[in-house]
Amino acid sequence: MEPKKQLRIATRNCGFIDPENIEDYIGVRGYEALASAITNGTPAGVIEQMKKSGLRGRGGGGFPTGVKWAFAAANQADQKYVVCNADEGDPGAFMDRALLEGDPHSIVEAMAICGYAIGASIGVVYIRAEYPLAIKRLIKSIEDARDYGLLGRNILGTGFNFDIELKYGAGAFVCGEETALIRSMEGSRGEPYTKPPFPASAGYWGKPTIVNNVETLANIPPILVKGADWFSSIGTENSKGTKVFALAGKITNVGLIEVPMGITLGEIIFEIGGGCPNGKQFKAVQTGGPSGGALTSRDIDVPIDYDNLIARGSMMGSGGMIVMDEDNCMVDVAKFFLDFTMDETCGKCTPCRIGSKRLHEILCRITQGEGTLEDMENLQCLGATIKDTALCGFGQTMPNPVLSTIRTFMDEYRAHVVDKKCPAGVCVSLLEIVILAESCVGCTLCSRVCPVNCISGTVKGVHVIDQAACIKCGACIDACKFQAIVKR
Amino acid sequence: MAKITSIADLKKFQQEYRSLKEARSREKIIVSVSLATCGIASGGNMVMEAMKDEVARQGIDNVEFIRVGCMTYCHSEPTVEVSLPGREPLVFGKLDENGARQLVQKYLKKGELTGTVIPVNYTRVEL
Ligand SMILES: Cc1cc2nc3c(=O)[nH]c(=O)nc-3n(C[C@H](O)[C@H](O)[C@H](O)COP(=O)(O)O)c2cc1C
Ligand code: SF4
Ligand code: SF4
Ligand code: SF4
Ligand code: FES
């Protein structure tokens, strides 16, 4: 049999154990990694394993987890904290939710392991309040782990203390950024601050704090049970292990997938994803959400890992993959992401607050057929300036969808600006709905469905649309049984 | 349940629980229902209720239902995995009330395939 394309490490238990039953988790060697570490290991030993495994943060940045833990471990303090970032705000992403709902104990266990490694006794999960089921299952896991003596004081008689509490986020995208997240946890406005100091030296309440993503944490118990060498044997030179992606958009097999690093984009889109539905042509995939960029059919053979994606002008991000087909207009897609960032900017710094608005205005002009070549230059120049001057990762990456689509779909932008046409047939202002005289049989159906009565013609006579009055709703196209009406 | 107080305790519990589960899967039909937000939103609870009801009607008395998390097949929710004693587990997708009842009448009762079977497309790391 052909080897399977997917490899499930982080999602190993999702769909296989009852997430609300701690005994089910213990039955699949749950809490064994924690128990071994605190009974027979040392904090330095755990950190060494993490470094050797090559695990990098799955929250978007890709920073080596073991190296980060070592920083926090080296900083002396009366109190340290472990924070699980469960804010997951990328449009189209649902990896962390699925992990928390399907296998909450592995997150609880991993946080305790991190606490042991860095010398923290308190863990906090920052989770968006829109994830009620994940919250419910997480709370039950924490309570059950306490009842079983796997959280709390003097765990397994080793003298190690660790407990976990929850903080709820109101669902602002920027609160996923670690410094904004810390501010929000402290009860202040969720606004980022400049680094350094990094959270590993001064984070929550000014104390050394490790912020790790849900998926990063889910990989940790298997690494300790099966060994760092096993983990680092999977993946590419600089990106070890697997990545969970949420496949969404114009893709046949919408769903959650977990694949080894180094798999090609083509294998993901066509072999696992089943290609675009309805026989449509694959056009592009947005990775990294509003911070990322578009990969296209030219990137089909690129092995997916942190470095290759950046080299292609995109990024790994947290794992949202939004697939687009021939019917998507890339200018419109860029506008969609800018619409999102314009709403979600925290407003603290000028380049991001005002820059996102200006980028959005220019994109609106272009999609309405009022764009100029100068607008295209301004998009690029303004985008580059925002990247250089914004305070946090949000603003520094926010122009990426625009810059990447301009770079890879220059022709499409030019068609909007120069020819005043939208090749994908999306931008309403640039379309004409016309009746093909040779195909129209004069059945009158279209004139009866048109909401603004702008189609004229007699029975058995060719019908005509009054372009000035047409609102381009498309109702007539769907109604005509003779395919006589087209967009162009 | 008494607290687990040492690593030896944990391992013992783990072993006992594993053998318990193995014994159970030799005697019982295990139906795992995908009930994360995704599964619930597409009708997973309704499918579970319909199957439970049909199991009772058919007088099958060795079925155990388990709520599990996301099975990752968004495109085919609601999904359930059925494990008949001595057979490889199979995942059935795109279930509705009727499909759920058919599944019980055909597969659970007689081992006959019915509906949409979703091929397993991954290797899973088991600890
Ligand atoms: C605008 C913005 C949003 C972010 N959102 C998230 C998020 O939702 N979840 C997450 O884990 N990390 C998010 N991050 C990354 C975090 O700042 C941080 O790097 C990460 O939580 C560290 O964990 P890791 O090393 O395990 O990836 C975001 C970063 C930025 C700049
Ligand atoms: S870059 Fe944007 S999100 Fe970040 S601090 Fe500035 S205004 Fe806020
Ligand atoms: S519905 Fe089609 S065929 Fe009929 S009148 Fe309109 S354009 Fe002509
Ligand atoms: S697109 Fe809508 S408004 Fe225009 S002619 Fe057709 S039905 Fe009428
Ligand atoms: S997220 Fe669970 S099946 Fe889609």
UniProtKB/TrEMBL annotation, chain A:
Top-rank lineage group of the source organism: Bacteria
Coiled-coil positions are none
Supply the SMART domains for this chain: NADH_4Fe-4S
- Alphabetically ordered keywords of this record: 4Fe-4S, Iron, Iron-sulfur, Metal-binding, Oxidoreductase
Q: Which family does it belong to?
A: Belongs to the complex I 51 kDa subunit family.
- The name under which this protein is listed is NADH dehydrogenase subunit F
Q: Where is the 4Fe-4S ferredoxin-type domain?
A: 431-460, 461-488
TrEMBL record, chain B:
Q: Which SUPFAM superfamilies match?
A: Thioredoxin-like
Which InterPro entries does this entry report, sorted A to Z?
Answer: Thioredoxin-like_sf (IPR036249)
Output this protein's name. NAD(P)-dependent iron-only hydrogenase iron-sulfur protein
Q: Provide the species name.
A: Pelobacter propionicus (strain DSM 2379 / NBRC 103807 / OttBd1)
What's the source species' lineage? Bacteria, Pseudomonadati, Thermodesulfobacteriota, Desulfuromonadia, Desulfuromonadales
